């Protein structure tokens, strides 16, 4: 389980480099049909990267605290600890923070699996982008309110809210999610022109 | 073969190279490559003069190879060579810009990552917590002690409790007061009194607070005479008052019997008043130097040294240790119901 967590964390932290490389490759492909094919392939990898971000975040929130074995009780303890971090943002009431802390890891787990599955890519990636945007807004709000708290990202070491956390989350999490979202919508909005067109679209010569 | 000029299906504009079509099945099959020259492959009309011509090359090449030159506009052929160099230049500009943007993103993103990774060993290093002297025998799994044996007891409850909560705070910090008033006050008669939690106070006076350091001195002196709990409650209850005029001794005196206060005053001799954390006597930089001045300063510096190892970025910061296993530190205010739920969860392990 720890190996899986390490792999997910690695993909979450370095996946954006592959997504950026994919963007460059896409822009370098001159042939539009080849470009579409490239985007299709890259979308699969992009969804895996963004999915890994959410799975790593869920893993980070649910993994047992240091010294505890994997068990349902230790997962509950970790989620209770996460509730403290949610409340430290001072946005939600204790009850709401507790509810969010108990739902968010499972929502992230679901979204991560949804993204990796590739089903309804437009909606899953859009939801992922919105979720990351919301998280970044919360970090920004905490920073401007002068709170010096752990961001509670669940990925990587604990990090205090601030410009560094925003930059990291912006490049590592939001950028891949937005690119995947744009790619997913781009593919759907531009159906292949290689199919035969109907002759009625010919305009009479004037 | 009837000649018809093809129009872009999207924009209804005539195609740039005037495809001739006989509307036969053969041509229809070839239409995808030649039928949308203006809009094909995502090139917007506004950019037809730029790389949009690239698409037309592709169309033309395909069309040319499969249909024949009779169906092509020869005029377009003549301009091919001139356009090709222009298109290539535009394409190269695009590629160069995208590569430059990606490199920039990687360069900007890397410092943030290196910052987080460099912080990892700092945070993962277990900070040794000082155990107050004169307490009961500590469990075998308790963290090693680093403070001197003379350090005063600034704690509530039994040190043999399964959960130890160390709170790094500044007595002049309003958030620390909120934590004490709303959370710790409820916790002390409940979980501390029942032996579930051992609550330890650590001094971490911040430079921004004028009387924070002096308050910490008074509290350490009060702890030396065994009046820490009353003195702490008195200081937090009257924080606004003494933070305005700096008259801390008034509230310390009211929190303990006169005899105890006289002992506290004796301990505070030579400590001075109104000393901020930034302007400590004799320019204290370490515990050894602190011991040379006011005796209470050494205890404060010991706590600060512990806090820097956590590390403490803000007050209040709390470190929870469960059965000798130190958990990640938290900071800010946490409500008692949430903290209680966490403690219950820990105790159920």
Please provide a written account of the structure.
The complex is a heterodimer of chains A (206) and B (349). With 206 residues, chain A is mainly alpha-helical. Helix content of chain A is 73%, strand content 0%. In chain A, helix 3 packs across helix 4. The radius of gyration of chain A is 20 Å and the shape is globular. Chain B is built from 13 helices and six strands. The N terminus of chain B is likely disordered. With 349 residues, chain B is α+β, with helices and mostly antiparallel strands. In chain B, 50% of the residues lie in helices and 7% in strands. The longest helix of chain B is centred in the N-terminal third of the chain and has 45 residues. Chain B folds into two domains: 113 residues, no CATH class; 193 residues, Glutaredoxin. Chains A and B meet through helix 1, helix 2, helix 3, helix 4 and helix 6 of A and helix 1, helix 2, helix 4, strand 5 and strand 6 of B.
Note the topology.
The complex is a heterodimer of chains A (about 210) and B (about 350).
Chain A: H1 2-28, H2 32-62, H3 72-88, H4 94-117, H5 121-144, H6 163-189
Chain B: H1 25-34, H2 52-66, H3 74-78, H4 80-124, E1 155-156, E2 163-169, H5 174-192, E3 197-203, H6 212-224, H7 228-237, H8 239-245, H9 248-254, H10 258-267, H11 287-292, H12 295-309, E4 317-322, E5 325-326, E6 330-331, H13 336-347
Parallel strand pairs in B: 2-3
Antiparallel strand pairs in B: 1-3, 2-4, 4-5, 4-6
Radius of gyration of chain A: 20 Å
Over all CA atoms, what is the radius of gyration of chain B?
A: 38 Å
Gross geometry of chain B = globular
Overall mean pLDDT score of chain B? Answer: 66
**CATH arch. level architecture of the largest domain in chain B:** 3-Layer(aba) Sandwich
* Major beta sheet summary of chain B: 6 strands, mixed
The helix-strand sequence of chain B is: HHHHEEHEHHHHHHHEEEH
| Record field, number of beta strands of chain A | 0
Number of domains of chain B: 2
Sheet with the most strands, sense and barrel status of chain A = none
Discrete helix count of chain A: 6
CATH superfamily of the largest domain in chain B, by name, is Glutaredoxin
Beta fraction of chain B: 5-15%
Whole-number mean pLDDT of chain A: 84
How would you classify the helix and strand content of chain A by structural class? mainly alpha
Which structural class do you get from the secondary structure elements of chain B? alpha+beta
